[in-house]
């Protein structure tokens, strides 16, 4: 006789874990079976389920030991994820899938020498844990586990057919199914970070589980979060690093050189929050026409000691990442905006370099000191430019003669040496995203390139050269900033493109920066001038960090290192420590452990720099697309900057925005692609689109999530005056222009040669 009673549904892992979590007493397999009315054969899959939960690290020997005990301790066996390598070469891990509100404890992994598996950052390991103190553990691996579940970032959408996640990644071809049981608190239209679950649904799509809800995607501020998660940029500091930064305090003079009486000033962007360099200049009384200049940099090495939690995290990040609406800093705010920020009228420790240049702008000698300074003023580029143009404000009037004019005089002299060595003088316009207080993108404007920008950049370049020279003279490791000569294949492609525009460029010649600058000078009055600058930029090698000196092609320098921004670049912190050691300026210089890892560190920070640059670029594209999503149908002038079988790539003149005109959106014809001459030619009507041509385009589609903008070529009657974008008024007389309230910009960093 059979029973009509239906068996209860078998519990999910989440249901079992919830039961264990909520139970006031310890539970085991028997209690779980009773709670879910499991009998007979049901106990076999229950045993398998509990084994899987154990392997995943949810409890130790049995379910009685839940993964995070009430007293905050981790269980003796836990799944951990290796996140980084500290300065001593030790692997650091955190509990996998940590979901608590407070920072995860640090786990120092001590691999068993008898183990047959190698561990690298990113691996997941089942490990035995031994508590060291309240915030750290020692972990001994038991076995290496499968790779962590792949995470995807997307938009949660609730439809009649159920819940879906649409990935923000342009390359993703399919959506993912999201069961409401795994959606956490996510609502329709919100940005969610998900893990891909094992197996496939009956619809042939993979299922996901929400790990984190990032907010409403319609908010512009969510767009930078996309890049942060997409590029895996660390944006939460370990508790130990935060505590170390918070414990920092004022520095006394001690053995430092006292420079507090000198009128050093900081000059930065209007939206800068941290000021890590100050400058000063005076005529050199011992060298007619020459100058004595000082560049003082925040003494980050004093606060960030090698091997400390702060140092480990700074090295992991490699650099700060800048977005229009936020900064992901290399150092916690207590340092980046506090003790390592050269705030006016406050004593600050610094690494300073005295430099003496002759009347031709050549660096003749230099001297590095550890100093205590007191910045006399926090100035903006615009304020300095106004003053130098003859329109000082109340703030700059008293500084004009004693401070600003000597700085300008030293800069004018330094330009002689720059021109003599023949640097590559590219003119690439930089555009900034303007946002209001609510985070809405209100405009895309061209950033002004002032003499005050160039002045600071030249001071920083000279200080960087002095640092490289000093370290070479001491035969100490140096974190060089290298930029190799362009690849001959790229130069050949450049020559073909220039030839197609009627510009002579001999193939096979020895390429020096001056040669390319001469091309730019010849093309300066041509309509294609901007495009030619872009083409020469594309032909360049990518600058990077290296322990070996390979020179800097773009700056035409035989040796170059980054010294001037240790607050936001780990490379500069390494250079500071090397100088401290070589010049016996303290006991916080370069360690022997760091010396042996220079090549590895150089490779790592080069990668983090590329990661940040990609995230910043992606976010600017997304903010730009957000702006143009409200301009659908509007017509803009632009130029063709790329010709492809897929269509034409267009750069809009006034905003620098890039978009694609798909082949199907070109004027009606069948187009033949001439790869060599970079053109499309209509087979029927003979219309030709060449690289560099000016065109009018209509905004057809703009997707803030992908950052893509689709355009149409418009001609004749379609070029409607009513839908044509009104040209922006150009302010030629800077001192008479009204200042804009630029709350957000495409790059918060000041143009001080960050990527040189």
Automatic annotation (TrEMBL):
Classification via Pfam families: CSD2, RNB, S1
List the catalysed reactions. Answer: Exonucleolytic cleavage in the 3'- to 5'-direction to yield nucleoside 5'-phosphates
Signal: is it a keyword of this entry?
A: no
Q: Does the keyword Metal-binding apply?
A: no
The broad enzyme category this protein falls into is hydrolase
Q: Which parts of the sequence are annotated with region: Disordered?
A: 718-756
What's one GO-annotated cellular component? Answer: cytosol
Q: Which GO terms describe its molecular function?
A: exoribonuclease II activity; RNA binding
A Gene Ontology biological process in which this protein takes part is: mRNA catabolic process
The UniProt regions of compositional bias labelled Basic residues, in chain numbering, are 726-742
The organism's place on the tree of life at top rank: Bacteria
Subcellular localization, as worded in the UniProt entry: Cytoplasm
Coiled-coil residues are none
- Which EC number(s) are documented for this chain? 3.1.13.1
What Gene3D superfamilies does this protein map onto?
Nucleic acid-binding proteins
Record's keyword terms, sorted: Cytoplasm, Exonuclease, Hydrolase, Nuclease, RNA-binding
Q: Which family does it belong to?
A: Belongs to the RNR ribonuclease family. RNase R subfamily.
Listed PANTHER family = DIS3-LIKE EXONUCLEASE 2 (PTHR23355:SF9), RIBONUCLEASE (PTHR23355)
Q: What does this protein do?
A: 3'-5' exoribonuclease that releases 5'-nucleoside monophosphates and is involved in maturation of structured RNAs.
- By what name is this protein known? Ribonuclease R
Q: Which organism is it from?
A: Kiloniella spongiae
Q: Which gene encodes it?
A: rnr
